[in-house]
Amino acid sequence: MAESWGNSAEGLGSDLHLELTGPGGRRAALTRALREAVRSGRLAAGTRLPPYRSLAADLGLARNTVAAAYAKLVAEGRLTARQGSGTRVARRVAPVETVRRRRTPERSVRPPYDLVQGQPDPAAVPRAAWLASARRALTVTPHDAFGPGDPRGRAELRRELAGYLARVRGVGTDPERIVICSGAAHALRLLAAVAGGTWAVEAYGLPFHRELLHDEGVRTVPVSVDEHGARVDEWAATGAGGGARAGAANGAGGRAGVGARAGAGIEARAGAVLLTPAHQFPTGGPLRPERRAAVVDWARSTGGLVVEDDYDGEFRYDRRPVGAVQGLAPERVVLLGSVSKSLSPTLRIGWMVLPERLVDEVVAAKGEREQWSSATEQLTLADFIGSGAYDRHIRKMRLRHRRRRDRLVEVVSERAPLVRVTGIAAGLHAVLELPPGTERSVVRAAAWQGLAVEGLAGYRHPESRAANRDGLVVGYATPPERGYEGALDVLCRALPPGR
Q1: Rounded to an integer, what distance in angstroms lies between the CA atom of residue 288 and that of residue 279?
Q2: What are phi and psi of 429, to 5 degrees?
Q3: Whole-number Å distance between alpha carbons of 458 and 454
Q4: What Å distances lie between residue 106 and 102, 373, 451, CA to CA?
Q5: Which three-class secondary structure state does DSSP give residue 278?
Q6: Does pLDDT of 266 surpass 80?
Q7: How far apart are CA 480 and CA 123, in angstroms?
Q8: What is the predicted pLDDT for the residue at 22?
Q9: Phi-psi region of 121 (alpha: psi -120 to 50; beta: other; left: phi over 0)
Q10: Which of 87, 93, 102 is closest to 49 using CA atoms?
Q11: Nearest 5 degrees, angle CA 445-CA 456-CA 464?
Q12: What is the separation of C-alpha 326 from the centre of its chain, rounded to a whole number of angstroms?
């Protein structure tokens, strides 16, 4: 009888680790262990304890012993017991460790208003559609999806991505040349491990990416940018005709001689170049067609590698199509992408579209036991793309972001006419060009009023010789709908006044 009761009780409740030691009987030891677990914070306020029958079976105690210990701690105010809710740790109990954390918080309190770029509104995640895709995917998921996986990623997702990228971004590839990774940063780290050496990078870009490359032993050389993207004449001189091609690609100021001289210095050192051609990050503007051709010419003639971060490639608001550079030279360009901006960074899903010659090297660098994106989330994303839900979500968010962008331009034009809004043809952010020498004071004024926003100086390569540009990088996708107008109001109060 006792054995059958114990076996049935094992299936109830939840696990709870307790060590019954010290003087006194078993009831006193259990009461003491529970009291210490609550006092130390190991059992947090609100935690539901196992039913006394279940805990009694786990510890080999009589049910009355556990019930008596629970009753004593309820009387002390450390536990609460309500019918239908079970026995829980009382919420009014604050362990010493919790009090200390309140006095010295582990992280700073978020400001009331947030216009930091790169953080899409989490409320915009299409939960219902994602859940529907997850259910469909798990219904038909093969058993091998829950075993050791292919380092390249699930074949279902790679097939869907190959079709989607070809249709939407003009990418030329097949599923065997796509490697799934846990975000664009992970992809960049793998490429740095494979390519190494010196890379040319845009003079304005993510400091995190530069630090990542540095940690992998890659030296970065800054290349200046203008309204048409990276100045390719600074590295893309490809022999006698290369300098002329690069110079012509840059229009005014891009003379062949200048291109050849600048390229001679960087070309001898850089074996790869990291670009954001769809929408230069963070200054804005796509890489003009002549410069794209010059970059491809450089890669083909020197054996160099073009690493294309397809940042904001899907969020264009003008009518000019801007395809991926990868489509011009699939064997010389690596395309990086992710769902961090389109869906959520918490999904940790990115991809690389690789030249055939690099696939095995990248997979080897990733390793058989590398931390990968969840197979179930990869399968969900495959269904999300294949069902058309991803296209519908992108189009919905494109309209929403465009309206927010238009509102930003309108408000700044009305209240701060000295400030020019640039980089607005695509993406989730804009650059507000400030009068020289005002950036730091504007950022401080915004912070004083409870607005988080970043200055352009933080994105500048420390070795860049180009003149400093004062500006703000304003992420208009970040705030929730109810907080956007308030954030814009605070922003304009921090900007230099108009005439």
Answers
A1: 11
A2: -150, 165
A3: 7
A4: 9, 28, 21
A5: coil
A6: no
A7: 7
A8: 81
A9: beta
A10: 87
A11: 140
A12: 22
Three-state DSSP at 452 gives strand
pLDDT band at 6 (very low <50, low <70, confident <90, very high): very low
Q: What is the mean pLDDT of residues 292-303?
A: 92
**pLDDT given at position 265:** 47
Q: In 3-state terms, what secondary structure has residue 8?
A: helix
Using the structure block, give the residue that is written with the tokens 């846990």: 182
CB 219 within 8 Å of CB 198? yes
Contact 233, 247 (CB under 8 A): yes
Helix locations, 141-271, DSSP H = 155-169, 184-195, 207-215, 242-249, 256-267
Query: Distance (Å, rounded) from C-alpha 70 to C-alpha 74?
Result: 6
* Distance in angstroms (rounded) separating the CA atoms of residues 186 and 209: 10
Enumerate the H helices of 10-126 as residue ranges.
Answer: 26-40, 52-59, 63-75, 96-103
pTM: 0.78
Report the greatest alpha carbon distance in the chain.
96
Q: Taking Cα atoms as reference points, which of 307, 352, 323, 282 lies closest to residue 118?
A: 282
> What confidence tens digit (pLDDT) does each residue in 439-490 have?
999 999 999 989 999 999 999 999 888 878 899 999 999 888 888 999 999 9
Query: What distances in angstroms separate CA 498 from CA 327, 331, 412, 441, 453, one per listed residue?
Result: 45, 51, 10, 16, 20
Residue where the block lists tokens 């770029």: 117
SS3 of 474, please?
strand
Asked if omega into 286 is within 30° of 0 (cis), the reply is: no
Q: In one letter, which amino acid is 32?
A: R
Q: Is 92 exposed, middle or buried (0-12, 13-18, 19+ CB in 10 A)?
A: exposed
The SS3 assignment for 333 reads: strand
Work out the percent of the chain whose per-residue pLDDT is above 70: 85
The CA-based angle 344-345-349, given to 5 degrees, is 95
pLDDT of residue 321: 67
Tokens encoding 188: 């960049």
The token pair that represents 84 in the structure block: 């239908």
- What single string gives the DSSP state of each residue in 372-439? ---HHHHHHHHHHHHTTHHHHHHHHHHHHHHHHHHHHHHHHHHH-TTPEEE--SBSSEEEEE--TT-H
